């Protein structure tokens, strides 16, 4: 199994290369040469597998044994998920008839990104160590490779990356966040990690300012080479891979809760639909891979907040940033682009970075006249043109037939803050408490649940909504939604890990101006201190 870029570059790369490189030289994202199919007996052979055993089977389909031997892979997986608080890793909870919530927030930072980043951190360390051993054998001893991970965060990614990379050998991590603009819990989760290799930088400015600084530093060849910069953002293939596992896991969990064997005749009559609160399209894209590997998923429902670029795409075939008429200061309205601030901040995006991978499959499958290599090349050139359009015109449009292809797998919906809050209330106090349990949703999960409730589904269909964060992580939105219920006590849902978190010792460098040069100096100064 090799990997190539969505934008047509002919290079074939190994799994290890795509993990360490992240983004292709031509600006594209890496995808596997083919989507592997499942062993014919998977429904019985994997039936009683734990999360980690399933991960091993699924990862092995994408990672050749000669790159990471199965024994090593097993170790990496076990180590990665030993930090989760639930033995099931991602437990499935029945809320009401035909409706389940898949809890993805039992990792160290209480959000779904841990599922991927706990693994990615260990994987990085493993691949670096292997590289260093190899160069040692070649007597290339002075070339010990280190990597400096650099990223910007508006909250969740930063803390999950820090917990994934803390105390990892030969890796330093620098996370920039806009000072005062991440929630107090998120800020504390990042800055209270005191490991020597973890460096937080609070920048006076916005998330976009932080993102721009990171981009500037990555494109600064001298700085980039000197420190061997690496990224952990959501386009890294290993993150998608890790997320495929819970789609399979929940499939088996659901059958087990129904007391039906997945390979029985009864099972054929059962349909599945997954609803996913979506931002950068990484979580749901893993579901697309699961489906195309052979997991019988009927639909994947993309649930967005007011930042609805994906919902509009699935309705029109146009992928266009939100245009808002802004005042130019002299009384003239001009078109500008905007991101709305919502109650589900981890989904406040202007474009979805992983969407390009789906675009590649839509392009590829819409070509029916050619085969093999030619078809792959053509798909790459179509995606490249789309992405050029997006850059120059802020918009790309697919053909009707390509949209139809997307609609075989996806549905979509858009949920307002108002609806998010109503949904949190509706699930806290069920209308019929005999058929539904009371459940406290976080605002992101509530977006998915609201979309799920609006779906028209046949009686043999089961919906699974992915829960992406623990409600205590976004306490302000939850408390605001439930303030009229005097019996709701926030303390009751507060995990013990959050108690006293805000008062713990913190380590963070403050930079009073969003200036790349100041960040460069800070990074070099911090690195020096790290190695004393
Ligand atoms: C990152 C995140 C999402 C969005 O996931 P994508 O893979 O970017 O679509 C949703 N909810 C929470 C809590 C998140 O942290």
Automatic annotation (TrEMBL):
<feature type="domain" description="Threonine synthase N-terminal">
    <location>
        <begin position="2"/>
        <end position="81"/>
    </location>
</feature>
<keyword id="KW-0791">Threonine biosynthesis</keyword>
<comment type="similarity">
    <text>Belongs to the threonine synthase family.</text>
</comment>
<dbReference type="GO" id="GO:0004795">
    <property type="term" value="F:threonine synthase activity"/>
</dbReference>
<dbReference type="Pfam" id="PF14821">
    <property type="entry name" value="Thr_synth_N"/>
</dbReference>
<dbReference type="GO" id="GO:0030170">
    <property type="term" value="F:pyridoxal phosphate binding"/>
</dbReference>
<dbReference type="InterPro" id="IPR004450">
    <property type="entry name" value="Thr_synthase-like"/>
</dbReference>
<keyword id="KW-0028">Amino-acid biosynthesis</keyword>
<dbReference type="Pfam" id="PF24857">
    <property type="entry name" value="THR4_C"/>
</dbReference>
<dbReference type="InterPro" id="IPR000634">
    <property type="entry name" value="Ser/Thr_deHydtase_PyrdxlP-BS"/>
</dbReference>
<dbReference type="InterPro" id="IPR051166">
    <property type="entry name" value="Threonine_Synthase"/>
</dbReference>
<keyword id="KW-0663">Pyridoxal phosphate</keyword>
<keyword id="KW-0456">Lyase</keyword>
<feature type="domain" description="Tryptophan synthase beta chain-like PALP">
    <location>
        <begin position="93"/>
        <end position="341"/>
    </location>
</feature>
<dbReference type="Pfam" id="PF00291">
    <property type="entry name" value="PALP"/>
</dbReference>
<protein>
    <recommendedName>
        <fullName>threonine synthase</fullName>
        <ecNumber>4.2.3.1</ecNumber>
    </recommendedName>
</protein>
<dbReference type="InterPro" id="IPR037158">
    <property type="entry name" value="Thr_synth_N_sf"/>
</dbReference>
<dbReference type="InterPro" id="IPR029144">
    <property type="entry name" value="Thr_synth_N"/>
</dbReference>
<dbReference type="GO" id="GO:0009088">
    <property type="term" value="P:threonine biosynthetic process"/>
</dbReference>
<dbReference type="InterPro" id="IPR036052">
    <property type="entry name" value="TrpB-like_PALP_sf"/>
</dbReference>
<comment type="pathway">
    <text>Amino-acid biosynthesis; L-threonine biosynthesis; L-threonine from L-aspartate: step 5/5.</text>
</comment>
<feature type="modified residue" description="N6-(pyridoxal phosphate)lysine">
    <location>
        <position position="113"/>
    </location>
</feature>
<dbReference type="InterPro" id="IPR001926">
    <property type="entry name" value="TrpB-like_PALP"/>
</dbReference>
């Amino acid at each position: 199994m090799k990997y190539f870029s969505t934008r047509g570059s002919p290079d074939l790369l190994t799994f290890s290369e795509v993990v360490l490189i992240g983004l292709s030289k031509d600006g594209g994202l890496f995808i596997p040469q083919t989507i592997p199919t499942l062993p014919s007996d998977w429904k019985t052979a994997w039936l009683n597998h734990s999360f980690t055993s399933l991960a091993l089977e699924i990862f092995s389909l994408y990672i050749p044994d000669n790159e990471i031997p199965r024994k090593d892979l097993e170790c990496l997986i076990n180590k990665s998920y030993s930090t989760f608080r639930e033995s099931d890793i991602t437990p499935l909870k029945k809320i009401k008839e035909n409706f389940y919530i898949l809890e993805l927030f039992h990792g160290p930072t209480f959000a779904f990104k841990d599922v991927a980043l706990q693994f990615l951190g260990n994987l990085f360390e493993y691949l670096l160590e292997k590289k260093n051993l190899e160069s040692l054998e070649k007597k290339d001893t002075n070339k010990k490779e280190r990597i400096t991970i650099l990223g910007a965060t508006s909250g969740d990614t930063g803390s999950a990356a820090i917990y994934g990379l803390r105390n990892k050998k030969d890796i330093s991590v620098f996370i920039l966040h806009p000072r005062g603009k991440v929630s107090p819990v998120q800020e504390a989760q990042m800055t209270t990690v005191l490991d020597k290799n973890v460096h937080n930088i609070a920048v006076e400015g916005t998330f976009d300012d932080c993102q721009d600084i990171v981009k500037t530093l990555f494109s600064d060849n001298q700085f980039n080479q000197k420190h061997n910069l690496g990224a952990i953002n959501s386009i890294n293939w290993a993150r998608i891979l890790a997320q495929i596992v819970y789609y399979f896991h929940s499939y088996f969990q659901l059958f087990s809760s129904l007391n039906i064997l997945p390979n029985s005749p009864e099972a054929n009559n059962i349909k599945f639909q997954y609803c996913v609160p979506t931002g950068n399209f990484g979580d749901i894209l893993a579901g697309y891979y699961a489906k195309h590997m052979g997991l019988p998923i009927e639909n994947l429902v993309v649930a967005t907040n007011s930042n609805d670029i994906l919902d509009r795409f699935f309705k029109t075939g146009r992928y266009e940033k939100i245009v808002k008429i802004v005042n130019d200061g002299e009384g003239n309205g001009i078109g500008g682009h905007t991101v709305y601030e919502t109650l589900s901040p981890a989904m406040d995006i202007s474009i979805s970075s992983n969407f390009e991978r789906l675009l590649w499959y839509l392009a590829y499958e819409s070509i029916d006249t050619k085969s093999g290599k030619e078809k792959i090349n053509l798909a790459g050139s179509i995606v490249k043109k789309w992405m050029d359009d997006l850059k120059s015109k802020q918009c790309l449009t697919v053909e009707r037939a390509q949209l139809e292809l997307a609609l075989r797998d996806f549905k979509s919906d858009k949920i307002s803050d108002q609806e998010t809050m109503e949904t949190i209330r509706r699930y806290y106090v069920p209308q019929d408490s005999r058929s539904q349990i009371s459940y406290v949703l976080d605002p992101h999960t509530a977006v998915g649940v609201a979309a799920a409730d609006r779906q028209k589904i046949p009686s043999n269909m089961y919906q699974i909504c992915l829960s992406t964060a623990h409600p205590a992580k976004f306490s302000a939105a939850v408390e605001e939604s439930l303030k009229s219920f005097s019996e709701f006590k926030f303390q009751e849902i507060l995990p013990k890990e959050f108690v006293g978190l805000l008062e713990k010792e913190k380590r963070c460098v403050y930079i009073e101006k969003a200036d790349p040069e100041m960040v460069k100096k800070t990074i070099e100064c911090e690195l020096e201190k790290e190695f004393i």
